[in-house]
Fold:
Amino acid sequence: MIKNLSIRYHLPLLIVAPSVLVVGLIAIILFQRTRQNINIVSVELARTTTANVEDNLRDYLSVPNTINQLNLQSIALGALNLDDLTNLELYFWNQIQIFEGVKSLYFGNPQGEFRGATILNSGEVGISIAGQVTNSSVIRYATTSDGRKTEIVHQVANYDPRIRPWYQAALQSNKPIWTDIYQDFSAQELAITAAQVVKDSQGEILGVLAVDLFFQGINQFLQDLTIGKTGQVLIIDREGVLIASSNPDLIAEAQRNQDLLNIVESENELISAIAENLLNEFGSFFRLESTVNSSLTWNRKHVSVQVKSFRDRLGLDWLIVVIIPEADFMQQVAIQARITFVLELLILLSSLGIGLGVSRWVLQPIFQFSEAADQIKSQSFNPQTLENLYQRQDEVGELARVFVDMAVETGDRQQSLQDELNLLNFQVSQSNDNPYELTALKKWQKKASCIRTVYDYHPHLPQLLSQVPYYQHLTPEQLSQLVMEGKIKRVEVGDYICREDQPGDEFYIILTGSVRIFVEKINKPLVILSSGQSFGELALMLGGNRTATAIAIEATTLFSIDRLNFGKVLHQYPQMAEQIAQDLHRHQTELQERKQLLAEYGLLEDNETDLLQQIKSRMKTLFNL
Structure:
């Protein structure tokens, strides 16, 4: 087809095509480079965002423990008397107003007394008390500007601080700890408590200090972050429970459920898809260590995800998840693509115009020469056809002048030849015909497909045989003789090479292709063998039935040697049996399995206890040595 294509199209194509190809390659390279830059920018943005979140989180979470440590020191120095419960109330009332983000701070003692300060829903500071004076109820009071209790704003009966989770956890740990995350139903927010056991100088427990920290401050910080255009940040625990988020909708969803929200079950399809993708990739959130970069395609949009583990010295183990949709940066790619397209179109049009102009300049003389050639053929050549070319002083003009001279001479010769042809035709018509029959005999040979024999593989087969564990100590001469006694087999996809429970009288080396070995009865795959690997050697040398099935999973070429030919080699080299028996004896595990099978088939004597002697005896019997 290309050969029949006119030069009229060839030449413009050859001029324009390289330009189009180069512009196309440049466009592809620019696009790929832009994508790479986007990936780099998104990863770097995620890294800086994660670092910012981590720093803020550490500062925010350090406040409760700092308060507990300050109060612990005040108690140790005698500045804070735990027996003066009224003064303790006022102390907490003043302290809670100093630290931002703290919801409540309080103290419970072994006698069941409880004193604390809390931020009410109105934003004012309240005082909470429980114990003997409240008849075991916890009562929350509003306060005046100087900390005096006024009306009751909340009351719960049968409150014993000693059985509360924060109290029990502090006693069991005997060191500063965090409680589990919980949902505060009065505030409809997630919270966590930092607790610290208090002891006197003799080690007696005086009580437990605790500080409640709500995550509203973390949520607000995350929502104030700028992460591209639509990026998000999540903080989750190792179970996938949402702790904080830059997405207010997720926080609202958790509050609606009045329970801890696992992001796998979130109504937000993107968040649940990211959770499923991470679980599919890593199996569990507990396996996410250090910093992990992942990605997924959601709704035909590429999303980059970076996960970083966050731990503190009190035992928190959370994950910071930064989500950056690639679409946030694709506007730059789209602009670059449009610019590239316009440039490519301009270059294409310019190349096309230049190509057509150059091709016309080059091809016009060729067309004139072609027209002149047709005139010569029809014996109507007119030198005026090439007049404009004849007057040119370049190579084309020189060619035109030579062409005209040749055309005139050719016309004269053509006329002379025509006269001679007319005379010859006349003479032929006067002669008698002497037809004769040509008999041509050709012998057709059928094509014979040349089947590669074992000699084609001879240079490599001895080396492959020597890699079989039981043949490692054979001499090159013995290995070569084994090769000569073998043969080449070719099997197609799905062909069985040997079947389970069939007699094992042949050994194979895979030359090309691959073979699946499996237990056919229960369809249990064992292994897939490929080029250079072998199977069936134990069955060949010790007898017994096959314990597995071998099937080709692609077109496969095998070298095989059966028991009869193997026996010929053993008869030719009697010492081989001893060498192979020694090698077999070194592989105790395989032999014990094979021994059990041989015993089941009654192929071993019960009184034979020496495994090496059993091998030699079995080989002598099998090969008639």
